[in-house]
Specification:
Strand order of the largest sheet: 13-12-16-15-14-18-17
Number of helices: 12
Largest sheet: 7 strands, antiparallel
Structural class: alpha+beta
Number of strands: 21
Length: 463
């Protein structure tokens, strides 16, 4: 979990407020506004269309599906919040826990501050997602993979400009979707200096539980794979709920473009085949299996090294009633016929390239995939090598960029690099067989290929 650093308060408040006034009028001048806040404002104005004159949060919807795993995380966050409530209350702050939809579930802290908070509906039963209430600590943390601090006029709604808040989301280590969010808010006063360290530590400790459970789930998937192999002479792979491969046999490894017979129970080591059709299929399977644990489905997906779609059957795998992934059987069509394209899927369709959002100083830059040679992780930032020079990606997570661009010809070649396969000019071999990719950007940057990713790169390039 990335550490949260609180930005120092300075005389820039009028500058931020002035930028806010211009931006809500429809201008795009955001000089003096931090990139993460500027991106949030764009979402609030152009995507969610949140009224900046909103004075209170709306009532939260009640029909929200989440698993027992989410309940465990929320309960643990509540325990950690209660452990520091006296310290936070002493400086006039309040602590809140909200679920993945932004619904506030519990609040603790200073009595006077809670009275002010009640006027804005900063309280249980109300929704503080970014789409409902604009830029704020809880909602914006749910939208990003990093902890966030929102000060005064950085809030989208003017009625909340007297508040300072800091939030951090706990995310599922497999799907990367938010599970819950922890937040500290202060009214007309500074956030405590220890807020950043405390929030990051609380989220890290809570996420440890999810990582341990994910490794157990990976082991369960491998056991289900081995059991299926012992019963039938067919080609198999085990994939987690995000579509990453936990283990695959020789033929499945070729079709998926991943190493064969290499178990990866740890979610950090699983293989991304970069097949949008497979991701759509496993998402559809998850929805059907949640209604009927005995469900089995079949469809056809395009795979690597095959000109025609391959028929597959998908069988969900459960552990203690919790879906942990699927066994994918290649060359068979058993069970319910699945739709070829899931309505409302967030994975880009074939032929419709995603846009990549980056920033240059105080401007947002929208890029098409062919304009990007590679993405490089550098600490808490991701930098893009583009035809317009080096730009900072809006997302601080290389994993997210890998997921979004996997279907657009991008491949993870190293812990720190995702490359555009079409922008590789040369492949250099080392004395011990190691690979390096020479990109066709202006600097002809040489990108290393990790030993673990080398087999996938060779297959992708036909080496």
């Amino acid at each position: 979990m990335q550490r949260l650093t609180l930005p120092t308060r300075n005389a820039g408040k009028p500058t931020v407020y002035g930028a806010w006034e211009r931006f809500v009028r429809g201008e795009d001048d955001i000089a003096g506004v931090r990139p993460e806040v500027a991106l949030s404002w764009h979402r609030c104005r152009d995507q969610y269309r949140v009224d900046p004159k909103l004075t209170e949060a709306p009532v939260a919807i009640t029909d929200v599906d989440h698993s027992l795993e989410h309940d465990v995380v929320i309960a643990e966050l509540g325990f950690r919040a209660a452990s520091v409530v006296d310290e936070v209350s002493s400086i006039g702050g309040v602590v809140t826990v909200a679920d993945a939809s932004g619904r506030v579930l519990a609040e603790w802290g200073n009595k006077d501050t809670r009275n002010f908070a009640a006027k804005a509906n900063l309280a249980p039963w109300y929704c503080w997602s970014e789409s409902a209430t604009g830029t704020n600590g809880m909602g914006t943390a749910l939208e990003t993979t990093a902890p966030v601090v929102i000060r005064g006029p950085e809030h989208w709604c003017q009625a909340f400009h007297d508040w300072n808040c800091a939030g951090v989301a706990v995310r599922d280590v497999v799907t990367k979707q938010p599970v819950a969010v922890l937040n500290i808010s202060c009214w007309r006063s500074e956030l405590p200096k220890a807020a950043g360290a405390w929030l990051s530590n609380a989220a890290s400790r809570t996420q440890f539980t999810l990582r341990r459970r994910a490794r157990d789930a990976g082991a369960e998937l491998i056991a289900a794979y081995n059991h299926a192999r012992s019963r039938a002479a067919v080609s198999l792979a085990a994939v987690d709920p995000s579509g990453r491969v936990v283990i695959a046999d020789d033929r499945a490894g070729v079709l998926l473009g991943v190493p064969s017979c290499t178990p990866a129970p740890d979610p950090a080591e699983r293989w991304n085949p970069g097949l949008p059709g497979l991701i759509r299929a496993v998402r559809y399977a998850a929805k059907q299996a949640s209604r009927n644990p005995d469900w089995v489905g079949s469809t056809q997906i395009f795979t690597h090294l095959a000109d025609e779609p391959t028929p597959v059957s998908i069988r969900p795998v459960f552990q203690f009633g919790h879906l942990v992934g699927n066994i994918v059987v290649f060359g068979t069509s058993e069970g319910e016929q699945m739709p070829r394209s899931e309505p409302g899927a967030t994975v880009p369709e074939q032929g419709r390239a995603p846009r990549i959002v980056a920033s240059r100083e105080n401007r947002m830059v929208l890029l098409r995939p062919p304009e990007v040679a590679f993405a490089e992780s550098d600490g808490s930032d991701v930098w893009l090598s583009t035809d317009q020079g080096k730009l900072r990606a809006s997302s601080p997570a290389l994993d997210k960029i890998e997921r979004e661009l996997g279907g657009a010809g991008f491949l993870r070649v190293h812990r720190q690099y995702v490359v555009n396969l079409d922008r590789i000019r040369e492949v250099e071999r080392g004395f011990k067989g190691e690979l390096a990719l020479v990109m066709d950007n202006e600097a002809n940057t040489m990108v290393p290929v990790s030993r673990r990713n080398a087999p996938v790169v060779r297959k992708a390039l036909g080496l």
